[in-house]
Structure prediction request, 590 residues.
Amino acid sequence: MYLGINWGHDAGVAVTNSKGIVEYAVAEERISRIKNHVGIPVQSLKLLSKHVDLGAIENVVIGNGWESSTFYLERFLADFMDEKHRKVGLAQPITPGLRIPRDPKVIQKELLQKLEAFLGANPKRNYLFPRHHDSHLGCAIGVANLNKSSLLLSLDGEGDGESGAVSSLQFNQNQPSSILYKEHARFPALDSLGLLYAAVTRAYNFKPLSHEGKITGLAAFGQSSQAVDILMRYVRVKNGIPEIRQTRNFKQRFLRKSLKHLGLGKHAKKTLHEIIQIAESQTVNYPDLAYAVQKVLENSVIEIISFWQKKLQCHSLALAGGVFANVKLNQKISETELFRDVRIFPNMGDGGIALGGIWYELFRRDELSHGPLFENMFMAPDISIDEDSYLDAIKSKGIVSVEIIGSEELPNKVARLLFDGEVGAIHKGKMEFGPRALCNRSILADPRDSSVNISINERLKRTEFMPFAPVVKFEKFHEYFTTSEGQSIFPFKFMTMTCKVKSKFLDDFPGVVHIDETARPQIIERSDDELMWKILDSFEKLSGIALLINTSFNVHEEPINFHLEDSLEALQRNAVDFLVYKNHIIRTKY
Prediction:
């Protein structure tokens, strides 16, 4: 078996068999309740140790690489990070501050000692350290269509001094059963489209690496302005590789600061922050800067994939890395029809690289299974035994009321409550691994009234610009939505891509329709989730619509709920009206 660990941003743990087929995967934030947890995922390891003998595992893959393991303080000399530190992995972080000038290998050794102390010494244990973007590419391999030649693209903020990488899977003409992996390009961190987007996130006083989705939502309200032209002057793609014309080392930064102080810096290269300031100065309306960076991101990424598709003649595209959390970008890529099939790994950001690191290492050793590596994203261990005990304790204290419903009647009861205007939540089975709630930890509501968006956001203390996402019966998906010709339904099983809502349905479920007449649907097949399919089926019989609002079950700035305790606490805080757990409908008594 293989143990994969990410102890960087969005830390987590994964366990697979020797062929890479997933046994378990857990995000540390769901247990620690610290959003985007950074550090050794101790709580996740403890949870998995109840189900797997971690000490006996001989292969441990640290998915975030060597240089990504460096830690830093908030720095106040951001513009004067010198080239020497940059070469040993101390690349400029997004937020102002100063990184501790320590050799990453020293930090890596200290972390390994702590990890060994937890796992227990094992003389046969091997530690493998794929580069950050190789781990992301491993995630892309995990979803690639292995029946066709595939282009693999990773893009994020930065990791190991890089912001992206391009590889491909090609069939060997002489050995039809063999797939050749070829590396084509690596993108420097200084040319990061992810950091460009994050800089705009910061300009709006949102949190970089966390609130980029707000910018995507806000962009839909903006319009074209000179800000688009400004950003395009500084961002270009040359031979399939992005380049941002900005100050790139200590000397250029020092020269820029000195010339600017003397009033002579008009034509000197600018910092990323200054580029964003210039673009912002050319906007009139609040959302226009968001529109500009979204437009530039879409244009740049499409230029990248167009170049490599023409060069390599790949028929499918597999994507990973935090940039592809941008569901609107993913739609634009699909609409180019450059590829017959576009797939995004559902846990596309750093949270996924505990798995991606394993898959990359196994693939390059030709040991990775060519069959499906996972069936769904419900990868956490089943903790229902502990949860049943907790529910019994809460019931005995009289804090909640519990109505037990027969399994055949439960979907009808839930659908009726939602049809009558109540907001419910569902807590069942294994926790999702990834940023999307896929109906095991979801809030459900009637999508026919757009005002429900305001009321739910108020209850959850959220300030979102986009409507909620819909969950829809598989049988109705193509009736309600339009996708690109030949596009696989794969992205729509995991909410990783938006698509157009057919015009005749725009007024039928406004609670899930974006201002640009798109939505981010999740498809439910009966064989995948019978309870949720039956709830949708019952709601269709009541309303004529086989679709519901699905938003993650968490209060703003908190991770998605993991334990039943988290969900019951949210119920008591009035986040929802009722909670579905197994065959129980739970309400608060207060």
In short: Confidence is low (pLDDT under 50) at residues 68-100.
